[in-house]
User: Fold Cephalosporin hydroxylase from Desulfitobacterium hafniense.
Amino acid sequence: MIDYEAQYIRDKAENIRKMNIDTAPSHTAKKFMEAVGPYQYVNHYTWMGRPIIQLPQDIVAMQEVIMKVAPDLIIETGIAHGGSAVFFSSMLELLDIYAGCEIPREVVAIDIELRSQNRTALEAHPMYKRITVFDGSSTDSKIAEQVREIASRHRAIMVVLDSNHSHQHVYDELNIYGQLVTVGSYALVCDTCIEVFGDTRNDRPWGKGNNPYTAAKQWLSEHDEFVCDKTYDEQSLITSNPGGWLLRVK
Assistant:
């Protein structure tokens, strides 16, 4: 009897391997990112009615990771319009349907300046019931301490860093929140693609040589309990987060 699921997994792995050997797909993916960047392509999508500011490929990758890790706490820095917080909350809602959890699953979201219109929309959203919002800098010691207290009640913790994209800020965030990631889970450092493409918004203080990628690279060199998992880079090719999936292995 043919095991079609096992065959599917083998075929998928082989096609991903071949796709990453062939230079044409990665070249095309890069040209695509360069072409759509000036049009704020990541702003074209919503999740359950809220702007999510993520590439579709990255949304699917995050869903796969959440399914694999089954976190009971997701810590997100950077809220913007609230779409990602809603996405994470909805994924935890689905996880509860798929496999219950003794610990109530929740999202902690931190933003230094959550605009009143976005706050109102987020608080009115049905998925807000799992979300706790902290107002202030993600590197503020008082906020970090409160988040650590919440994290102490959880067993499977995932972290997503998507706020200020300067090297120093992301490096500081990793030092604070990286330690909360549980073994087998991830810290996702978002927008590492700035190292490749820069930032089309000229008013930002970050750019090539000063961005989430450079911060993650430095931090990884100092923390052997984490490795860079390229699985989702190689699977998607089109991503805002190349080299950003940091897997805790010990």
